[in-house]
Specification:
The structure holds 2 protein chains of 2 kinds. By secondary structure, chain A is of the alpha/beta class. Chain A is built from 9 helices and 9 strands. Chain B is built from 13 helices and no strands. Classes of the chains: A alpha/beta, B mainly alpha.
């Protein structure tokens, strides 16, 4: 059973308001893989992520996550959204936010001691012990991001999906996140959506390139040509740094 | 103030006592529901629901006076129309996102238009001002019972589903991923808003009720870390504002609703200014 892929996407199409967003997408992800998903804005990365999470239904094609339908595997998949999307004035503590990862549809009433213990353990793992009672809005972007990571981890997922984890985060914190993810990859499959090819290039073996159509490349194959195809010529200049970063990796 | 306290004991002006009791009871529901409204930033939805209640009030009066259906009280009408508006707005925002604000604005105005039509077709002189701006003379013993029952309902639902409401308000998408029926809880929340808003309509009126729902929670939100703390403090603030407003209105013979809202507004303004001064000093 272990050999079965944990994510299978077969001939998936998706359109919104008459606009084709994804065309004929085929992806297979093996257990324990560490992948990144890159592509331009509006290329369909988020849509694909939401299809994997079962939040959107594809128009045609099949999606199997952990051997079952996405809606059924949700509890075994951890999801970390972008940390910039939250209302900064919302009155919640770090504890409150992470506890949301222990919610269950059928259970009413307060959280149990076991729930709170699980939260404390996960916060320890991401080095956020002692932040429990802090207001979510008071902590820094990098800390907030680790809180959201904890929320995804506290349900003990088998697959971890991260949406733009490096958005508006400084370099040092980016490295810390990288260390944490490397450790987590020992026990779970990780898929990162990112703009930042440089960030993931040391960690991932394969890159899923999404721009309406999807192509999966081994990291070594990512070069100027692939990126140009993916983003189009306009963005090539902006990406130049990142590309050379990857080439260095190849030589090194 | 002594004058006001004496007046509360006076059996000849029982309405004042009723108003105070209704205000205190209503404050509990207002604190809880108002906190959700402020945290989720849906006060314009609460405003539309409140204003649309006029159609139910008008229909209630019309049925009672013109058609002689005694049991159909204006408050019952208000409850029904507010619930209908809440459901319409909820469905539109959940399933047809594009034009949510238009629908909210339309329900706001259509509700008032329908209410005014009913009022003008009801025989006898009906003062729309009483419903728009509140009139504590309208509070009966039955209303107190109604407020009490709704308090209990809101407290039970609030305690049972606190975690779910919190998750739905904070991060709808994540709540859905955890298997929570987001649509159901959002509609339930809007229905609770509808019921709550109607509670205080007789005291502060349709037009001003929205301020009493949001201002106490906004004040509490300045210093509370968690949603439940905000609920407790906003209930207490709401009680304070209502009591002070009633007191002033009795002593100076001024409209009750206006006084309550002005007290709430003044406290909010002072707190916001004080808060920003404190912050400036810190930095």
């Amino acid at each position: 059973m272990n050999e079965d892929p944990v994510i299978v996407i077969k001939d998936v199409n998706f359109s919104y308001g008459g606009l084709h967003i994804l065309e004929n997408v085929n992806i297979k992800v093996k257990k324990g893989e560490f992948l990144s998903m890159v592509g331009p804005n509006g290329g369909g990365k988020t849509t694909l992520l939401k299809i994997i999470l079962g939040l959107l239904k594809p128009e045609s094609g099949e999606v199997h996550i952990l051997g079952t339908l996405p809606e059924r595997s949700r509890n075994r998949v951890g999801y970390m959204p972008q940390h910039t999307l939250f209302d900064p004035q919302f009155p919640v503590t770090v504890m409150d936010v992470v506890l949301m990862g222990r919610l269950e549809g059928r259970r009413a009433g307060p959280f149990s001691k076991a729930d709170k213990k699980a939260v404390t353990e996960v916060l320890e793992e991401v080095e956020m012990t002692g932040f429990c009672k802090r207001r979510f809005s008071e902590i820094s972007g990098g800390q907030r991001q680790r809180v959201l990571l904890s929320r995804a981890l506290v349900g003990r997922p088998e697959i971890l999906l991260l949406d733009e984890p490096t958005a508006s985060i400084d370099l040092e914190i980016e490295h810390k996140l990288y260390e944490i993810l490397k450790e987590l990859n020992k026990r779970m499959t990780i898929l990162i959506v990112t703009h930042d090819l440089g960030f993931v290039s040391h960690m991932v073996r394969r890159v899923i390139c999404v721009n309406k159509r999807v192509a999966v490349h081994p990291t070594g194959e990512i070069n100027g040509k692939v990126i140009q195809e993916m983003y189009g010529k306009d963005i090539r200049m902006v990406l130049h740094d990142r590309v050379s970063g990857i080439e260095e990796q190849l030589h090194g | 103030m002594v004058e006001f306290i004496n007046a509360l004991r006076n059996p000849d002006i029982a309405f004042l006592r009723y108003a105070l009791i209704a205000g205190m009871l209503g404050s509990i529901a207002f604190g809880i529901v108002g906190t959700y409204v402020v945290a989720r930033r849906i006060s314009y939805i609460a405003g539309a629901i409140a204003h649309s209640a006029l159609s139910g009030i008008g229909a209630g009066l019309y049925l009672q006076i013109k058609l002689g259906i005694g049991w159909f009280t204006p408050i019952l009408g208000a409850v029904i129309s507010a619930l209908i508006s809440a459901m319409i707005i909820g469905y539109v925002s959940l399933y047809a996102r594009q034009r949510e604000d238009t629908v909210i604005g339309a329900i706001w105005a259509i509700g008032m238009a329908a209410g005014l039509l009913f009022l003008t077709r009801t025989p006898g002189y009906i003062e729309p001002m009483s419903y728009l701006f509140g009139n504590i003379l309208l509070i009966s013993k039955n209303d107190l019972l109604l407020v009490g029952v709704l308090d209990v309902v809101i407290l039970i639902l609030g305690a049972l589903f606190y975690n779910k409401f919190l998750a739905v308000c904070f991060d709808e998408e994540f709540a859905r991923l955890r298997g929570i029926r987001v649509g159901f809880y959002y509609l339930l929340l809007l229905c609770l808003i509808a019921l709550t808003v109607v509670l205080m309509v007789t005291i502060v009126g349709i037009v001003m009720v929205i301020a009493l729902l949001t201002l106490p929670s906004a004040v509490a939100g300045l210093f509370c870390r968690q949603l439940w703390q905000m609920m407790i403090f906003s209930s207490l603030f709401c009680m304070l504002f209502t009591a002070l407003g009633l007191g002033f209105s009795y002593i100076y013979d001024l409209p009750t609703g206006s006084n309550i809202i002005l007290v709430a507004g003044a406290v909010y303004l002072l707190c916001v200014i004080g808060n920003s001064l404190l912050k400036r000093r810190k930095t």
